[in-house]
Amino acid sequence: MEKRLYNFSAGPAVLPVPVLERIRDEMLCLPGCGASVMEISHRSKQFIAIQDAAKERLTRLLNIPAEYDVLFLQGGSRLQFSMIPMNLLRGQIGPAQYVLTGSWGKYALAEAKKEGATEVLYDAAATNYDRLPNDGELKISPDAAYVHITSNETIQGVQFPNDLTSPAPLVCDSSSDFLYRPVDIQKYGLMYACAQKNAGPAGVTVVVIRRDLLARSSDQLPGYLNYNNHSKEGSMWNTPPTFAVYVLGLVAEWVESTIGGLDAMYAHNQKKAKLVYDALDASPSIYLGHARKEDRSLMNVTFRFPTEELEKAFLDGAKAHRLDSLKGHRSVGGIRASIYNAMPMEGAQTLADYMRDFASKHA
Ligand SMILES: *Cc1c(COP(=O)(O)O)cnc(C)c1O
Questions:
Q1: Is 197 labeled as catalytic in the residue annotation?
Q2: Is 173 among the catalytic positions?
Q3: What does residue 333 show for φ and ψ, rounded to 5 degrees?
Q4: Whose CA is nearest to atom 1 of ligand 1?
Q5: N or C: less crowded end of the chain, CB within 10 Å?
Q6: How far apart are CA 206 and CA 248, in angstroms?
């Protein structure tokens, strides 16, 4: 078999090897089933057990209380940009407030504007989205329909390190940092994450929603776009993305059983990020970090070089070390190293070693 690369792709992204091996082993014949997970009814007892187990693992990992429901939806986080204001803003008196710390928050706002009144509570445009609001800078109105944040801006590489306290329902796009640390879910009204960054393959999006917010959805909404239908039917209002739910469940099992839960996952992620940022900070004339230091993401490390030639040389040289998919997002350029949950320590170490070596040769 060809050797695997260290895959720094921003998404779809690296998955844990034990999960891939398990999928391979069960591909033709799911134990006790005589068929592939892709070939069985979503209403079979085998699949229902798989989906229930995935939901239970997420509930345990995130400590989700009974006042919340966990939904498995399709359409990615982009559909949530629309579903959230359709369900939570239509018919409300107060506006939806958006905190813009990068590209994804701006895309979310653009969709909300189509549904009702919005306000921009914070916008880091002036500094090219290199930072988060300072303590006390966010003035969330208690009358807001909700306030929307992006816990990790995948393109710019800035990340909220803690759970915010909000007087209005806090809606969080957690697409690129779902399950990376323990969270206080009770601070959130709704948390959502497409799986393909940090939690599984493309095709399933997790929505954790406080049940009282379900009362806001109008019966006039298109059926698929109404959270109530999914909640009432246990995410089986229509056929769920069965294979993606299966893999998401295996990844959650890996976080829980192999890594040892979210505290251990967080410690692991902090260690990996430190390796890479220490290498970056050791050569500030070569590596121009994008994010303000205190707002750096543990998931996506973003930086540029003083010249295009150095960037090209860096990417060319990376290949020899099996370091792959390091090119930054097309909208911002430079380098983006995505070091999600499933990136092994060895991958982060190999990147850090390469960065130190490259800097010593080009200083
Ligand atoms: C990738 C990403 C999205 C978009 O997800 P899709 O599944 O492609 O719709 C939204 N928000 C964030 C923070 C992301 O990283």
A1: yes
A2: yes
A3: 70, -160
A4: 175
A5: N
A6: 10
By most ligand atoms within 8 Å of CB, the mutation choice from 79, 84, 104, 300 for ligand 1 is: 104
62 CA to centre of own chain: 14
Which CATH fold would you assign to the domain 261-362?
Aspartate Aminotransferase, domain 1 (3.90.1150)
Atom index in ligand 1 nearest the CA of residue 202 equals: 7
Write out pLDDT tens, residues 248-268. Answer: 999 999 999 999 999 999 999
State the distance between the two ends of the chain, measured CA to CA, in whole angstroms.
38
DSSP 296: B
312 noted as active-site residue:
no
CATH 3.40.640.10 in the chain, residue ranges: 18-259
Residues near ligand 1 with C-beta < 6 Å?
Answer: 11, 76-78, 104, 150, 154, 173, 175-176, 194, 197
Name, in order, each residue with C-beta under 8 angstroms of 317's C-beta and a sequence gap of 6 or more.
354, 358
* Distance from residue 152's CA to the centre of ligand 1 (Å): 10
Domain 18-259 has CATH 1.20.910.10: no
Radius of gyration of the chain (CA): 21
Q: What are φ and ψ of residue 362, in 5° steps?
A: -115, 10
Give ranges for CATH 3.90.1150.10 in the chain: 261-362
CB atoms inside a 10 Å sphere around CB 45: 11
Determine the pLDDT at residue 1.
65
Assess whether the previous peptide bond of 12 is cis (omega < 30° from 0).
yes
Residue-wise DSSP of 174-240: -TTTTTSS---GGG-SEEEEETTTTTS-TT-EEEEEEGGGGGG--TTS-GGG-HHHHHHTTT-SS--
Instruction: Tell me how far apart the alpha carbons of residues 92 and 85 are, in angstroms, rounded to a whole number.
Output: 10
Closest C-alpha to ligand 1, atom 8: 76
List pLDDT tens digits, range 320-360.
999 999 999 887 889 999 999 999 999 999 999 999 999 99
pLDDT digits (tens, 9 = 90+) for 84-114: 999 999 999 999 999 999 999 999 999 999 9
